């Protein structure tokens, strides 16, 4: 039986738990206990994680996944899986995936030290005006080193704002997928792997794009695990239909650091648990780790980089294709944006993760383009080729952190894509190109 | 009884989430004749502020904020409010808050609601997936001074505009201030949809709500 259906059947007969009790007792309280039992802690004065944390974080996450299970919001009930079921899912999970089609096919794998880094580009999840949607998508797809595209959300169709769960959301999902396809054809990479339809975090947009064949084999759809250790029938339905159509499930594991997952230590444990649960429930093919800082949001905060780094280490015991989201607080046109992206790339790649990004301004504004993904890819290649250790990567990241820490609480969102890039050539302005090169040379020294 | 000493102890125990002791101390202080407003301002409120400080420093997380909020509400309901009946003492403003229609995300909204309570606001939490009509009803029913709306999805954040339109249609827009927030929301979007303020995060939202209430009360006073 496929995972999403299994979850529904388990949930229908599962234990009823009031949501607040699930959040506070089943998740938060148990996570606090597991932190102590397994000796997982985060020290802000010395944030580089020890590689010895890999095993305890994996084991604590595994314990949480099996004990707590997945909360199905529509039923207010818990779907549980046995230890053997989780182990079997791990044993059978693909270590590498062939994604995309034809000459644009690429391999996304569970990375070891020195392995090539898979790079996603695009303004993932970011609202992008329809008139600039294709050009901005094309600017990422045109970068040869970008392996796959995860582009933004369309907010208005037929001149009206999109409404969730309504026909306009279906239309937004379709327009987005069509826009991405046109952009890929325009840059001569029609078979590039697409993660869509981001215009719809509910199931409506994805199901609509799927039904028209705009997403198919070789592509992926986003399947978030709801905060924390939760799902709903919308996600499960989307996952089920996607599996039936040969679509890859891209699980979004995005614990709120400072929320019910507690601090960085608890969030790392929750991330592992959510990864395992997404593997069983959604039969996800790959996993996007995106810790969200409860106040600062950005993945480039020390706390979130620590979570990504530790999940990368724990993945030695899971062996899954895991991708770190890189979402800086600042945006295109600012040096801080590049420093954030660089610090995040250092720790993610050295810790064994693939990368997605950078997505500017915490994904709130379309203030970036493909040249910044080239920047991230160049740095990722350098870190991988030189087999930079986790400790050395953290030393570099901390040096960079000094350059943007003050701007995390009042970030500069930067300039929109259409001011930073030429809309015909898709090239960055001379000034922005110069800045990116300068910062790349500066940060490459640290590798 | 040394009321000042007890207030400090209430504040310290509340910051440490010691529910039993807080309840006992508040009850004893009121029985002994300590001023009820001072119990709130010098004891409970200061304790909640310390909880907020610990949260910002990363020592406390959302569960601790929720727990502190529960202790505060329980003590207020059991011991303080019956003595304050009819009085608005201790209330910095009245906020109706909810996640807009089509969106079921509640962590950000819960955090803002808790931080508002921590800072002395009375909060009516409408929950998630709230249609515009319910915001309007609640504003009328509770005499809200601020409406707070949250959305996590780019496809649902524009629903906030519908709430503002519904407030206008009900003739309430100039009687209430509107603040919006959530991951995809920006200052620009807030302005575009006609909100009065944008809360970047929970701490910012509390500061903005305080300003909005002040503006509203000043405007009301000058129009009398």
TrEMBL record, chain A:
The keyword Membrane does not apply. The keyword Transit peptide does not apply. It is an enzyme of class 2 (transferase). One of its GO terms (molecular function) is monomethylamine methyltransferase activity. Pathway: One-carbon metabolism; methanogenesis from methylamine. Its EC number is 2.1.1.248. It catalyses: Co(I)-[methylamine-specific corrinoid protein] + methylamine + H(+) = methyl-Co(III)-[methylamine-specific corrinoid protein] + NH4(+). GO terms for biological process: methylation. Belongs to the monomethylamine methyltransferase family. This is [methylamine--corrinoid protein] Co-methyltransferase. The lineage of its organism: Archaea, Thermoproteota, Thermoprotei, Thermofilales, Thermofilaceae.
TrEMBL record, chain B:
GO terms for cellular component: cytosol. Belongs to the methylamine corrinoid protein family. It comes from Thermofilum pendens (strain DSM 2475 / Hrk 5). One of its GO terms (biological process) is methylation. One of its GO terms (molecular function) is cobalamin binding. This is Monomethylamine corrinoid protein. PANTHER family: METHIONINE SYNTHASE (PTHR45833:SF1). InterPro entries: Cbl-bd_cap, Cobalamin-bd, Cobalamin-bd_sf, Met_Synthase/Corrinoid, Meth_synthase_dom. Residues 1-91 form the B12-binding N-terminal domain. CDD domains: corrinoid_protein_B12-BD. Keywords: Cobalt, Metal-binding, Methyltransferase, Transferase. Gene3D superfamilies: Cobalamin-binding domain (3.40.50.280), Methionine synthase domain (1.10.1240.10). Its EC number is 2.1.1.13. Residues 92-223 form the B12-binding domain. The keyword GTP-binding does not apply.
């Amino acid at each position: 039986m496929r995972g999403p259906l299994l979850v529904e059947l388990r949930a229908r007969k599962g234990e009823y738990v009031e949501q607040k009790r699930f959040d506070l007792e089943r998740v938060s309280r148990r996570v606090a206990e597991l932190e102590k039992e397994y000796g997982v802690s985060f020290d802000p004065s010395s944030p580089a994680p020890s590689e010895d944390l890999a095993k305890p974080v994996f084991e604590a996450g595994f314990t949480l996944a099996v004990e707590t299970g997945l909360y199905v919001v529509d039923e207010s009930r818990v779907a549980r899986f046995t230890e053997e079921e989780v182990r079997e899912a791990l044993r059978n999970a693909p270590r590498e995936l062939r994604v995309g089609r034809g000459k644009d096919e690429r391999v996304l794998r569970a990375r070891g030290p020195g392995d090539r880094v898979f790079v996603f580009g695009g303004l993932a999840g970011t609202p992008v005006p329809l008139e600039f949607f294709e050009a901005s998508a094309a600017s990422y797809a045109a970068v040869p080193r970008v392996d796959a595209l995860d582009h933004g959300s369309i907010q208005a169709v037929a001149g009206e704002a999109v409404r969730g769960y309504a026909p306009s959301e279906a239309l937004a999902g379709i327009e987005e997928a069509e826009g991405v396809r046109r952009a890929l054809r325009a840059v001569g990479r029609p078979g590039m792997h697409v993660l869509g339809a981001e215009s719809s975090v509910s199931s409506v947009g994805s199901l609509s794009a799927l039904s028209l064949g705009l997403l198919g084999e070789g592509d992926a759809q986003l399947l978030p695990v709801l905060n924390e250790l939760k799902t709903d029938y919308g996600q499960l339905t989307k996952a089920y239909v996607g599996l039936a159509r040969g679509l890859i499930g891209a699980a979004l594991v995005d614990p709120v650091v400072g929320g019910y997952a507690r601090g960085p230590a608890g969030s790392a444990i929750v991330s592992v648990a959510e990864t395992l649960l997404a593997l069983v429930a959604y039969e996800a093919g790959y996993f996007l780790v995106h810790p969200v800082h409860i106040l600062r949001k950005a993945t480039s905060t020390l706390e979130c980089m620590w979570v990504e780094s530790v999940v990368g280490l724990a993945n030695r015991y899971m062996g899954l294709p895991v991708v770190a989201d890189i979402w800086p607080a600042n945006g295109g046109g600012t040096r801080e944006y590049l420093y954030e992206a660089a610090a995040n790339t250092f720790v993610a790649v050295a810790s064994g993760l693939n990368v997605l990004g950078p997505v500017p301004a915490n994904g709130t504004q379309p203030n970036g383009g493909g040249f910044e993904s080239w920047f991230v890819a160049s740095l990722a290649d350098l870190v991988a080729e030189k087999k930079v250790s986790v400790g050395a990567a953290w030393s570099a990241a901390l040096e960079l952190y000094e350059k943007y820490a003050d701007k995390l609480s009042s970030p500069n969102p930067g300039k929109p894509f259409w001011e930073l890039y030429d809309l015909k050539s898709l090239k960055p302005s001379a000034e922005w190109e110069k800045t990116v090169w300068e910062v790349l040379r500066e940060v490459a020294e640290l590798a | 009884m040394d009321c000042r000493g007890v207030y400090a102890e209430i504040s310290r125990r509340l910051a440490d989430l010691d529910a039993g002791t807080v309840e006992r101390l508040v009850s004893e202080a009121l029985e002994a004749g300590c001023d009820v407003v001072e119990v709130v301002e010098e004891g409970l409120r200061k304790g909640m502020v310390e909880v907020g400080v610990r949260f910002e420093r990363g020592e406390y997380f959302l569960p601790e904020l929720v727990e502190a909020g529960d202790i505060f509400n329980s003590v207020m309901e059991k011991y303080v409010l019956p003595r304050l009946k009819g009085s608005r003492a201790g209330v910095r403003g009245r906020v109706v808050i909810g996640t807009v229609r089509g969106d079921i995300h509640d962590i950000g909204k819960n955090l803002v609601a808790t931080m508002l309570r921590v800072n002395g606001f009375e909060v009516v939490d409408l929950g998630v997936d709230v249609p515009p009509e319910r915001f309007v009803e609640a504003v009328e029913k509770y005499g809200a001074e601020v409406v707070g709306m949250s959305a996590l999805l780019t496809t649902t954040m524009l629903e906030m505009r519908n709430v503002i339109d519904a407030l206008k249609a009900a003739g309430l827009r100039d009687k209430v201030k509107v603040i919006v927030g959530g991951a995809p929301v920006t200052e620009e979007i807030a302005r575009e949809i006609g909100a009065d303020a944008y809360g970047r995060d929970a701490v910012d939202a509390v500061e903005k709500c305080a300003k909005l209430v002040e503006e509203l009360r000043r405007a009301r006073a000058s129009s009398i």
